[in-house]
Amino acid sequence: MKRNKKERQNLLKKTIEEMPFTTDEELAGKFSVSIQTIRLDRMELSIPELRERIKSVATHQWNETVKALPIDEIIGQVVDLELDKRAISILDIGPEHVFSRNRIARGHHLFAQANSLAVAVIDDELALTARADIKFTRQVKQGERVVAKATAAGNDRKGRTAVEVESFVGTEKVFSGVFTMFRSTDYKGESSNENSD
Amino acid sequence: MKRNKKERQNLLKKTIEEMPFTTDEELAGKFSVSIQTIRLDRMELSIPELRERIKSVATHQWNETVKALPIDEIIGQVVDLELDKRAISILDIGPEHVFSRNRIARGHHLFAQANSLAVAVIDDELALTARADIKFTRQVKQGERVVAKATAAGNDRKGRTAVEVESFVGTEKVFSGVFTMFRSTDYKGESSNENSD
DNA sequence: TCCAAATTAAGACTAGGTACTAATAGTAAT
DNA sequence: ATTACTATTAGTACCTAGTCTTAATTTGGA
Question: What's the rounded Cα separation, in Å, for the pair A195 and A109?
Answer without folding.
Answer: 27
